[in-house]
TrEMBL record:
InterPro entries: ASHA1/2-like_C (IPR013538), START-like_dom_sf (IPR023393)
Pfam families, alphabetized: AHSA1
Domain Activator of Hsp90 ATPase homologue 1/2-like C-terminal: 23-123
Protein name: Uncharacterized protein YndB with AHSA1/START domain
Highest taxon of the lineage: Bacteria
Family, as annotated: Belongs to the AHA1 family.
Lineage: Bacteria, Bacillati, Actinomycetota, Actinomycetes, Streptosporangiales
SUPFAM superfamilies assigned: Bet v1-like
């Protein structure tokens, strides 16, 4: 695998992936541009009418570059996708793919999805079935967090903030953390805490959404929101002591690992 992440001054993010495919560019070109082939691997139903592309969900797009069989680029709402094909030996293709988007913390989810799509495209080109493995995708997602350097922690004055895309929906995360046992005025369930931050009483608990509690120096707030793909986005803030950033970073890694094997 070969992936890089670029952050742009305007706040947008680009993921770039390269794959070597044992098929000639003309054949790969058909797979990335013809709806009857896209149906075998692309994550949405595609209809092309001139330079307009409609998808089975989400906003429409426009073709921004069409240079057969070398470059095919198009928008999908505010996102931009670009596929570049170069000959690789007598019968192969070097595929370079870029996806530019605004949600930096969704990069691992996007990259996992596109890796899986390209593997499905390769299976289609090979003429063999492709088997989707959600557990393997969850593990790959967390690998991409590290491969792409997506450190979830920022520190601003006395506030530590972590944001991370998770691989499970909010209700599963809440259940795993023991959120249903949170009671206002009582100490929060242990999975919501770290040893470096003595926990005080729960101040607010909204099932599947928010748990907030007091500490000796400030507050801790766990918030689960809609994320990229099928998982929730976790936003955690701890005020009062910026020195505990590593404690929360470690706890976030532990939680991500636990969720890959969590069962109801």
């Amino acid at each position: 695998m070969n992936e890089t992440l670029t952050l742009h001054p305007d706040g947008r993010t680009t993921v770039r992936m390269q794959r070597r495919l044992p098929h000639p560019p003309d054949k790969v070109w058909r797979a990335i541009t013809q709806p009857e082939h896209l149906a075998a691997w692309f994550p949405a139903e595609v209809t092309i009418d001139g330079d307009r592309i409609t998808y089975g969900f989400g906003p429409d797009g426009r073709i921004t570059q069409h240079d057969p069989p070398h470059v095919f680029a198009h928008t999908w709402g505010d996102d931009h996708l670009r596929w570049e094909l170069q000959p690789d030996g007598p019968h192969g293709t070097l595929l370079s793919f870029t996806h530019t988007f605004t949600d930096r913390h969704g990069a691992a989810s996007f990259t996992t999805g596109w890796h899986t799509c390209i593997m499905a495209m390769l299976a289609h080109l090979d003429g063999r079935p492709f088997h989707h493995d959600p557990a393997a995708m969850a593990r790959l997602h967390d690998d991409y967090i590290h491969i792409l350097g997506l450190d979830p922690v920022t520190v601003d004055d006395d506030t530590v903030r972590l944001e991370r895309q998770l691989t499970r929906p909010a209700d599963d995360v809440w259940q795993h953390l023991g959120g249903d046992h949170a009671t206002a005025g009582q100490t929060p369930p242990a999975p919501f805490t770290v040893s470096g931050v003595p926990a005080g009483p729960v101040m607010r608990a909204e099932t599947g959404k928010i748990l907030e509690y007091a500490t000796e120096r400030g507050t801790v707030r766990w918030e689960l929101t809609e994320g990229t793909g099928h998982g929730a986005r976790l936003i955690l803030t701890c005020t009062g002591d910026p020195s505990v950033a590593d404690d929360w970073r470690i706890r976030m890694e532990e939680l991500a690992s636990e969720l890959t094997s969590f069962t109801k």
